[in-house]
C-alpha cells in the first residue's frame, strides 16, 4: 500500500489546478493540512495575518472543507509552528512525502528549508509551482539575471508564454483510514465578534473556490470593458478576483487559459496586471525585505518623511487618513471603503497612497502596514511593490516629484457616485461640488482639508529638494 502523502496548504486553498494536491493524489492517500502559523511570520517584521486576512481565511477554509467533503475527504487543521507540526504529523502517519506549492515570502522560504531538514527518514519534501503564471527566475535578462524593471520583465514574459497547462481536480482523493485529529475552525476565533466590524464584508464578498470560478465566468463577459472601466470608481469595472488569487482559491493559470482567446484591449491590460503580480514575486525573491526597506539610496528616510512617532499632530494626520477624515472626498471614500470591505478600487488605492506619502509626507511604510492589516487581498510582494512605486523609492517606481492631484483625479475619473456611496455626508452635493466642497457647501460634519493641495505639493517638493541638497 502506498504511504500517506501530506499536502501542506497555505495560500493555495483550492482543488482545481493545484499541483501539490494533483501530484499527491496520484501517489497515495492524501492528508491535506492547514497550519495556522503565527510564529514563523512574526520575525523582525511581524507579518502575522491582519484582521481582514483572518476573516477571509475562516470562510475560505470553510469553503475548502466543503470541496474536499464532496470527495469524502477532510482537512486537518492545526495551530503552531508549521515545521514542528508537519514534521510531527509526517512521523505519526509514516508519510512518504509532504507536497507543497512554493511560496516566496521570506518566512515561508525559510520554513521550507527548515522542514526539509526536520522530516523523519523516508519522508521527502516535494515543492511545486502553482501560485503564479511562471516561477520567479523564469524570465531573465540576456545575462541570466532576474529583471528589476517591469517593462522588460513584461515583454520577456509575453515571449515565453503560455504558462503550463491547467490541471484538473483529482478524480478521486483517497485518505488513510485513521486521520490525525483536527482543530475546530471556530476555536481559532478568526472572525470578529465584539464588535463585528465585518458585516458589510459579509454582504459584499462570496468566498471560496466556487465563488472564484463564478466570478471568473462573469469576468469573461466583461473583461473587454476593462481598459476604460478600470479607472472609474463609480462604475468599478474590475474583476474583483484579487482576494481569490491571493488566497489561491483560483490560480492565475486558470484565469489566463479562460481569457487567452480574447482580443480586446481590456484583456491585454488585465493580462499585464496578472504579469505584474508575477513581477512582484520576482522582486521579493530578490529583495526579501522589500516591504520595509527603501530600495533607492537617493532617498534618505530620516530627512524626507514626517514620522508620526515624533509628534502627536503627525500621528493625528495618519489617523485621519486611516479613518477617511482628510477633507479630500476621493481619499476619504477610498479609506472608508477599505475599512468596510477590506478592499479598495485600484485607481483610488494609488490616489490614497500618493496623498499619504506626498501631501502628508508620511513614510510609505505606515501606509503599507495599514493596507496589510485591512486588505483581504493584502499581499506581501504586491502591496510593497505598489507602495514603493508610488513613493518613488522602489526598484522600478514613479519619480517622487510626480505628485497626483486627488481633486483633479476625482473629477477626471467621475468619482461622484463613488463618493456619495462612501461619504454619505456629501451625498446631497452636486457633481460640480462633491469633488472639492467649498466652505459654503461643505456640511458641518465633514472635515476641512488637512492641507491644501498647493501647500502639500510645494511642501513635498521642497522636502525633496532639501534632502537632495544635503
From TrEMBL:
Domain of life: Bacteria
SUPFAM superfamilies noted in UniProt: Cryptochrome/photolyase FAD-binding domain, Cryptochrome/photolyase, N-terminal domain
GO BP annotations listed: nucleobase-containing compound metabolic process; response to light stimulus; response to stress
Cofactor note: Binds 1 FAD per subunit.
Assigned keywords, A-Z: Chromophore, FAD, Flavoprotein, Lyase
Pfam families linked: DNA_photolyase, FAD_binding_7
GO molecular function: deoxyribodipyrimidine photo-lyase activity; DNA binding; FAD binding
Positions bearing the site annotation: Electron transfer via tryptophanyl radical: 305, 364, 387
Cofactor(s) for this UniProt protein: (6R)-5,10-methylene-5,6,7,8-tetrahydrofolate; FAD
Residues given in the record as FAD binding sites: 226, 238-242, 270, 377-379
Segments forming domain Photolyase/cryptochrome alpha/beta: 3-133
Entry similarity comment: Belongs to the DNA photolyase family.
Name of the protein in question: Deoxyribodipyrimidine photo-lyase
